[in-house]
Amino acid sequence: MIKTGIDKISFYVPGTYLALDTLAEQHGIDPAKFAAGIGQSKIAVCNHDEDVVTMAAEAAAAILDIEDRAAIATVLFATETGIDQSTAASVYVHKKLDLPSRCRAVELKHACYSGTAALQLACGHVTRKPDRKVLVIASDVSRYDLDSPAEATQGAGAVAFLVSANPRLLEIEPVSGCYSEDIMDFWRPNYRKTPLVDGKYSTMKYLGALSAAWEDYADQGGRAFNELAQFCYHIPFTRMAIKAHKQLSHQNQAQNDPNLYEPGLRYNREVGNCYAASLYLSLVSMLETAEADLTGRPVGLFSYGSGAVAEFFAAVPQADYRAGLLTERHRGLLDDRRALSYDEYLGLWHAPDPQDGSATTMRQGARGRFRLAGIEDHKRQYEAV
Ligand code: CAA
């Protein structure tokens, strides 16, 4: 069978964040609760002129050259934070990136899982048309109610990857284990800006879904636990992945070794949850920060979307994969950010939301090339600077 997988990968995060020590101080909480109990130090916060489209365009623009653009046959945009009930965010990005009009561009949704659905669809597409490429973008803004237990697990970011035949970075292996169940652990009715979440129940369902997806993966002929050199998990907050790995080790009568997941936590600890993008941010973190060369050594990936769908699968880093990573750019994006005061954070949390068609201009805040200039006549106006 033809080898398919990730040829290039990049992420983008806003240039502003809230340090969780600031949130802890504001709420009179022991900062160790967030640092150790939740496992997060910062949460990325969007400016008013940033949204899933601008972050997606920033992430994707960093990996596309002229040849890639010409070969892209499909754009799959995975998000929980859609900006329209009907039209797809993918078409805005398609336009901003100047992609060929002979292309399909659609949006996929399933809470935090849809990036994986997009990846699997893309691999299937490329198997049928090996000379074409699929651009997958996962982009989300995780925003919970203020003063709720979930507030510390917010975040924002986008990951873009190009799926192709004979990929330079990672082969995605065809075996995967899946699990679906109709549950109400985290959901967002159309009339709400923030999700409803049964927090403790969601963590329990996440772990149950991991166990079930792993069992299916094993039944489908997947790799043994001890063949996997690293593990990346969906990361709503890094402590969740730590618990996940402890459980999976136990399920396989293996020693719980933090070295097998720690590289995949590093970037997420500084960014927070970015729903569909979180697993793939963890993947970039693992590839770019693991000390060992992972060439030819399969890594396990676990994707979870509340509601719920879960999948376990494996990817194999290709020869010279490190040369294809954008490590310097990504570290720069994480390091070159500004900490917000609590009041600034509140101001950004309450983003303008005109619903009557009146013209609203967004204050300049985005650090990238793409920004949401305003909303007028119910239409979002994007500009590239
Ligand atoms: N020092 C160290 N640790 C401390 C501490 C301190 N001073 N104070 C508390 N802690 C620990 C607690 O002991 C607890 O640890 P354990 O998990 O080991 O029991 C941990 O900090 C969390 O504290 P609480 O039990 O008090 O929990 P909370 O009220 O802060 O809520 C939460 C935690 C339920 C995860 C909440 O943040 C939430 O609802 N988050 C959103 C939902 C979510 O992310 N679910 C994850 C699974 S669903 C999913 O993955 C999809 C998705 O992206 C949403």
How would you sum up this structure in a few lines?
The chain is an alpha+beta fold and 385 residues long.
3D structure, described in words:
This protein has 385 residues and is an alpha+beta fold. The protein folds into two domains: 4-170 and 325-384, Peroxisomal Thiolase, Chain A, domain 1, CATH 3.40.47.10; 171-319, Peroxisomal Thiolase, Chain A, domain 1. The chain is built from twelve helices and 17 strands. The strands form four sheets. Strands 5-4-6-7-1-8-13-12-11 form a nine-stranded mixed beta sheet, with helices on both faces. Strand 4, helix 5 (89-96) and strand 5 form a beta-alpha-beta unit. Helix 1 (20-27) crosses helix 2 (31-38). The N and C termini lie far apart (43 Å). Bound molecules: acetoacetyl-coenzyme A. Acetoacetyl-coenzyme A binds next to helix 2 and helix 7. Acetoacetyl-coenzyme A is lined by residues 30, 32-33, 36-38, 112, 149-150, 153, 185-186, 197, 199-200, 202-203, 206, 234, 236-237, 240, 273, 275, 304, 306.
